[in-house]
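User: Quick sanity check before I run a bigger batch. Here is a single chain. Can you write out its predicted 3D structure?
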Amino acid sequence: MKLRVNGLEFSYENKKILDQMDFFVKEGEFVSLLGPSGSGKSTILKILTGVLMPQQGQIMADDRQIYGVTELFAYMPQNDLLFPWKTILENVCLYGYVHGSLEEVRREAKENFSLFGLAGYEDRYPSELSGGMRQRAAFLRTALCRADILLLDEPFGALDVITRGEMQDWLIHMRKRLNKTVILVTHDMDEAIYLSDRILILNESPARITGEIVIEEKQRDRQWLYGQGELRKEIHRRIMGES
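Assistant: Done. Predicted structure follows.
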């Protein structure tokens, strides 16, 4: 198993956020965490990155227990966080700057600019790019990290609805090429349905995993998504705790 979380508990200022959280993610799987606002979805990602430490529980990756900050995870927040004074190439190579592998990361970045729809923008600055292009640059920066598991914290949440849809379409086509295990936090039911192999449903805080939806369709497009009315109803019922 690529990742297994057992009995995870976390409290903040005497308020319990996570209560006996258990879940797993398989190698190469795309799993979404879906639940109400404040249910601890982003907290789970921050615990996985080592930014927060749980009060209880165990995190296993590749059958090894992990603690604190590791290089197993690469985290992408909602905002692109590109440095405005650096070029796009310099921004996406941040991992190389930090870890002393700049030339290798620069070479890999240049090879992927076209794939990420950024060809010709290597020497531009973030202010010269559209919102969608900035997010693709941030995604490339995340993908260039030497991490097996990508943690995406509402990465398209700050975009307008049209650009967000375009980014979702782009990610659908990028999945196989990325060859990564992905955990996505989202409030968007359609986004979870469209992108995921499995959807894990959280209840309100203190949160646990209360349900799992498996999406078996492999050939997905917008027409397929528009026809998933019954699945949306089922997910909504589970989020609301209805039988």
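The CA atoms of residues 84 and 126 lie 6 Å apart.

User: Great, the batch can go ahead then.
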